[in-house]
Amino acid sequence: MRTSNKENIVIVPFESMYSRAFKDLNQWWIEKYFKMEEADYKSLDNPQSHIIDNGGYIAVALQNEKPVGVCALIKMQNTGYDYELSKMGVSPKVHGKGIGHLLATCIIEKAKELGAKKLFLETHTSLAPAINLYKKLGFKEIKGVATPYERSDYQMGLEL
């Protein structure tokens, strides 16, 4: 668990009571910029079975005990990467407060704890603030990993 006293944020592991927030926080940004796709529904409708039960992890950012951000660590197969940093969603009410950075840092630490050597993520070039965050965390542009998303046009990797 990590905390940020500045905004009274606590990062906790996913529990079933956060399922609705996990979907809502992600669906908000996806529909704002793109459209929901089949792969989104799989992980957002079934976070326990699709992510956690398959060796992944979800971090939830709470502010005053209410979910304001989420981020997943999804186990990858046959890609050369151990896990994917994915499904990061932060409430627009708290944008610019460092919650994305806090969540991503937590996910990177969890990946190391699980023995990961390489992390992967994918995004879209129009999401410059996200790309800048990932670069600050040490991610570098890569190419060539198959994606289930039409919207993905920018991939990044991180050696741990």
How would you characterize the overall build of this protein?
This protein is of the alpha+beta class. It has one domain: 3-Layer(aba) Sandwich (Aminopeptidase), CATH 3.40.630. Helices cover 32% and strands 30% of the residues. The chain contains five helices and eight strands; from the N terminus they run ββαααβββαβαββ. The chain has helices spanning 19-33, 38-45, 47-50, 99-113, 128-136; strands at residues 2-4, 9-13, 57-63, 66-75, 83-90, 118-123, 140-142, 154-159. It has an eight-stranded mixed sheet with strand order 1-2-3-4-5-6-8-7. β5, α4 and β6 form a beta-alpha-beta unit. The longest helix is centred in the N-terminal third of the chain and has 15 residues, at 19-33. The radius of gyration is 14 Å and the shape is globular. 34% of the residues are buried. The model has no long low-confidence stretch (mean pLDDT 94). Its EC number is 2.3.-.-. This is GNAT family N-acetyltransferase. It is an enzyme of class 2 (transferase). Keywords: Acyltransferase, Transferase. GO terms for molecular function: acyltransferase activity.
